[in-house]
Amino acid sequence: MLAKRIIPCLDVHAGRVTRGKKFGRAELGELTDVGDPTLLALKYNEEGADEIVFYDITASHEGRGVLLNVLESVARRCFIPITAGGGIRTLEDIRQVLLSGADKVSLNTAALENPSLIEDGAKKFGSQCIVLSIDAKRKQTNVWKVFSHGGRKETPWEVVSWAMKGVELGAGEIVINSIDADGMKEGYDIDLIRSLSHRVSVPVVASGGAGKMEDFALALEIGQADAVLAAGVFHRGEIQIAELKKYLKERGLAIRI
Q: How far is it, in rounded angstroms, from Cα 176 to Cα 2?
């Protein structure tokens, strides 16, 4: 049995880690500064995180590339896998992000605009390097639509269909971000996670809504996620990664201590 992973997420805007609710917008002043990305990454590295996700959350909206200098600073100090995303549009962008210290790249808006980027990236760098990140918003019971540009634009895609297409093209992992649950601390969207876990053959990472340790457990147990991602509860020190791992292991989950 593969161990379940605990992944803190660094949402970076203008070189700082920020947090909001329901994909709050930087341009509207809806984000709160929570710290320096390198220092936070080092903290999570020492606390026993299994991976770190680094998202440049305004790169696609602002039409620029990911902040490589920040990524390089994080990678120099941390010795756990790093996934980086935001503003990655070409194979050269993927190459640069990997050279800057990332182990995997996260594709979202660019993949929606140019699905062949998933396929080309998987062929050149390997499926294990290509993560398809999906921003989802519930439209009706058991129906979620995919949004792009940091949750700003609705697309024609339904979430499960897009995830299956991404895997078909070569994505080696799916990160499912619930816009509705983001920052609300009311739990992950279990129905959304479960719907994907049952339909795709690659690992599914649950994101959005963690407020207490039980929320992580339910996403892994009932949602059948392979990993759980969170930001605010870790940044604010409300949940310690070591304590969370102990709790999940005591519930019988396969956790790497």
A: 19
**Rg (Cα) of the chain, in Å, rounded?**
16
Is 215 assigned a catalytic role?
no
> Which amino acid type is present at position 111?
A
User: Which domains, from first to last, does the chain contain?
Assistant: 5-251 (3.20.20.70)
Active-site entry in 50, 56, 93, 135: 135
Cβ–Cβ < 8 Å for 96, 121 = no
**236: Cβ–Cβ under 8 A, 6 or more apart, which residues?**
34
Sign of CA dihedral 145, 149, 152, 156: negative
Name the residue among 179, 174, 166 with its Cα closest to residue 135: 179
Residue 172, number of CB atoms within 10 A of its CB = 18
Q: Is 93 a catalytic residue?
A: no
User: 254 and 32 in contact (C-beta within 8 Å)?
Assistant: no
pLDDT (tens digit per residue) in 7-58 = 999 988 776 787 666 654 444 445 677 778 889 999 999 999 999 998 886 6
Alpha-carbon span 191 to 208, nearest angstrom: 13
244 touches 217 (CB < 8 A): no
Rounded average pLDDT over 192-218: 97
The model's pTM is 0.90
Q: Where are the alpha helices (DSSP H) in 100-189?
A: 109-113, 116-125, 159-169
Strand 173-178 relative to strand 204-207: parallel, antiparallel, unpaired? Answer: parallel
Annotated catalytic residue within 11, 93, 189, 226: 11
